[in-house]
Amino acid sequence: MILALILTPLFAGAAAFFLRSDGSRRLLLLATAAVHAGLSAAAWRMRPLSELGGWVVLESPEVLFLSVTSLLFLIAAVYAIGYLRREGSGKRADIEEGFLFPNAAEATFTGCLLIFLATMTLVITARHVGLMWVGVEATTLASAPLIHFHRHHRSLEAAWKYLVICSVGIAIALLGNFFLVVAAGSAGDRMSAMTVTELIAHAGELDPAWLKAAFLLLLVGYGTKMGLAPLHTWLPDAHSEAPSVISALLSGALLNCAFLAILRMHGVCVAAGLAGFSGGLFVLFGVASMVVAAVFIIGQSDYKRMLAYSSVEHMGIASLGVGIGGIAGFGALLHVVNHSLAKAMLFLLAGNVLAAYRTKSASQVTGLLRLLPATGALWLAGFFAITGTPPFGLFISELTILRGALDTRHFVLAATYLALLLTVFVGMAMVVLRMAHGAPSAAQEDGPRRREKLLSIVPPAVLGLAVLGLGLYVPEPLRAAIDEALLALRVNG
Amino acid sequence: MREWIDAATALVVLSNLRLLGTSRLLACVRIVAVQGILLALLPLLSHAGDLTLRVALQATASMITKGIVFPWLLTRAVRGADVRRELDPIVGYTPSLLIGGALLGVALWLGWRLPLPGSTGSQFLIAVSLYTIMVGLFMIVARRMAITQVLGYLVMENGIYTFGLAFAEKEPLLVEMGILLDVFVAVFVMGIMIYNINREFDHIDTDRLSELKG
Fold first, then answer.
1. Of A152, A159, A171, the CB nearest to B160
2. Domain range list for chain A
3. How many CB atoms neighbour CB A371 within 10 A?
4. Could you tell me if A143 lies within 8 Å of chain B, comparing CB atoms?
5. Structure pTM?
6. Nearest-CA residue of chain B relative to A157?
7. How much is the ipTM here?
8. CB contact under 8 A, B170 and A188
9. Which residues pair with A50 in a beta bridge?
10. Cis bond leading into A243, ω under 30°?
11. Phi, psi for residue B116 in degrees, rounded to 5
12. Which of A228, A216, A202 is CA-nearest to residue A280?
């Protein structure tokens, strides 16, 4: 079952490189996404599962993250069909500089996209620390060609930065893995395999100094992939240059995978009695991420970069929640789910805006509500969702984290948290509201009212409804899954 | 056997210093290859008496990948980019060598201070692996050419692999192969990107890849 989840997209991705017609490739993409989503849904019933001797596991944390990834991929696949149809083949003019550039072959896009799904599934389900590492590095390698889909110099720069920064970071995580093995020392012979489950079970026998060093390296390494400041520098470039579908998946699914990897290491530290150490580091990186995001969102001229920095901010919030612990841990996991849905929605809408206005500069986009009414309305809704306005889900999760901070008497932290949230709200509001209202800016070829394609509206709308739904009511199975995940990951000791 | 292992690790230290001091890209590629082969030999040397299939397989795979495949991919990238020397690095070659010497001192100091709970490797091996990692990171930061950044990444991986050799011998073969495969694909993808960068920009100077800001 777990192997099916990993291997189906992998083989489909390989097959996509050999298919000749666009239609069959798009069908393959959709079919694989649907099969993957179906298997993930079945996993809710079938958990707990353990295959390959405990190396790959499907328990509550895995099922939670897997469902989000799978759902997002399915919706992105539906949107991607419309996107690929719109892109077509041949050269097109660059938006900012006017030169002509081609796209990569659609086979590369579809193939790498499916392999990307397979590698993300590997990271989510792997409990063996070595296998998890292989998966995280594989996600970097699978997504780099996707960032370079539009073949021009800016996307090449973004893809190169992404590749080098993430590879170096993940190499540091590999050293952290080896430090973990040293920390296990003699206990390593008694463990059946170097899995997180075994590490937690033998946590008392791990050498604390080496474990701390290992955790620090793993946090820095996987934190690069997650987008924690100051290791986030690849994020804004990659998200602004990649096609919007890819940005949606990077922000909504990939950052979560890295977060899960770090969470597992946190669990080992908590089980070994080092909760204060790892929690403190989480809080530090969380606040740093929120500060960096707030600084760069104010006065941001590119709306896709704004969304990228918003991802940095929300990963910081999740990190903060885990660091505080207690009920804030619940808030952090709920926040991860909500953020994925809302951010993916916003990126897909940004794709629509880009296609219509042909500019990434927020100041040159006005009158969204008049020109693209559905997109505009969803864009506004998405803005309110992502900044934590009720009744959307992020309000609940951010409030829960705040409650956790106040319960544990971290008043200064709570005040800083609120101040940063407010700063980001104001910064984003200035950009988004100006884009939505006013008269439609010039430079549209199709006349005043452009017909909006259904395939570009329905996916973000579905995501928006999901975030709204989660804000009104957190369903019991989800609540239970998050509680079980917290227990399995030992977030709250 | 001890002398051979010590000789190999000393050669690794020398290769790092040589890397820091040379501007010729093809020479750098060859030095990194030699480093990889030396490090792949280490488990063979330390297990000379009780050679298992697993150790032999691992060593052979590493030697082929690092000694033949990587240099081939990277030489192609260097020739394709038509660059022979790194002429204007961010940190010059003499300061690089001095910093390399200082890093060696730091690595030796760290290596002797890190307490090893029951290991089979020597303290010197920790020091050398830390040194190689530091040199790799330094190369990525202090050089401009994209190829040198890839070489720095490979040197870093060499150092991490050395550390793994000495202390994490229990890593299953599958994971070792997985790591090797990942690094191979990484170098492959990076090679393709360097080709694209050269075609797009007509140079491979990453310091000039600075258009995306803010």
1. A171
2. 2-489
3. 23
4. no
5. 0.92
6. B209
7. 0.91
8. yes
9. A57
10. no
11. -110, 110
12. A216
Q: Which of residues 126-165 of B touch A (CB under 8 A)?
A: 133, 137, 140, 146, 149, 153, 156-157, 160, 163-164
* Local structure of residue B89 (DSSP, 8 states): -
CA nearest A62: which of A51, A49, A73, A53?
A49
* Chain A hits for B178, Cβ within 8 Å: 130-131, 134
Size of interface A-B (CB pairs under 8 A): 120
pLDDT tens, residue by residue, A472-488: 998 998 999 999 888 88
Q: What is the pLDDT of residue A447?
A: 47
Question: Which 176-215 residues of chain A touch chain B by CB within 8 A?
Answer: 177-178, 181-183, 185-186, 188-189, 193-194, 207, 209-210
Cross-strand partners of A101: A92
Distance from CA of B136 to the nearest CA of A (A): 10
- Write out pLDDT tens, residues A70-109: 999 999 999 999 888 888 767 777 777 777 777 778 888 9
Q: Which residue of B has its CA nearest to A153?
A: B200
Distance between CA A13 and CA B66 in Å, rounded?
A: 28
pLDDT, tens only, B128-182 = 999 999 999 999 999 888 889 999 999 999 999 888 877 766 677 777 778 888 8
pLDDT per residue as tens digits for the range A319-375:
999 999 889 999 999 999 999 999 999 999 999 998 888 888 888 888 888 888 889
**Helices assigned H by DSSP within chain B:** 2-21, 25-46, 53-64, 70-81, 93-113, 123-142, 146-167, 173-201
